[in-house]
């Protein structure tokens, strides 16, 4: 197997997580903890010789906002690749860029800007009580992504990746900071199937959690929920398992690939204790997705 052709399935597999994570920008907001290292697990696909682009589309099914027990289906597009030596990486409802050259062997470092549109509870709220509390403004977050990937951990084609994004809202919505660390392991299972297992988390500042998880007196009066003051801290942890399939059964020849994914995340701290979750939603968040893509 070549690194190039393994990357077709690896990048599409990573894409599926971001189909799922980005989709709540359409349905409501992402409920997974799919983090930056999930994409970095696809590192074999980022050491192509020359420019390359992966395009894909997926359909996911998950909670309509963070902490919700109402579920929705959603579509999302995907673009990933490398153009002029700059890596293009998918993010939940956003994108990141890797400005560092890929290593020919050994550990591979990545660093570059990270952007995200966050639409948590900004529209299409299904729960009438939560909706009565009022819709929130969408946030636009800008920051940086950094990581390291270790190839050939257990076999010549696998990789273990550790990465994190740090971003700040510049649109005047939550006005805070969010940190998303993640660890992922990617490996082929046979000539036509690859798998990725990831663990990730979300940590947010006081301003972030106050915006999304506090129930103000005004919101309490409008919704009937008890008032609640949220502070910063860890909001969730989760794990995702995905399987990528080369559609002609051969990872070595590129072309189309499909993916199946299942995941679970658990709300923590203020995100769990807020009435939006503890009374009207659920701390347990499940999701699934399917996707298909093509690498040029």
UniProtKB/TrEMBL annotation:
Principal cellular location given in the protein's record: membrane
Subcellular location: Cell outer membrane
InterPro entries in UniProt: MipA (IPR010583)
Signal peptide: 1-27
UniProt superkingdom: Bacteria
One of the Pfam families matching this protein, by short name: MipA
Keywords noted in UniProt: Cell outer membrane, Membrane, Signal
One GO cellular component term: cell outer membrane
Protein family per UniProt: Belongs to the MipA/OmpV family.
Protein name per its UniProtKB record: MipA/OmpV family protein
Organism listed in the record: Allopontixanthobacter confluentis
Lineage, broadest ranks: Bacteria, Pseudomonadati, Pseudomonadota, Alphaproteobacteria, Sphingomonadales
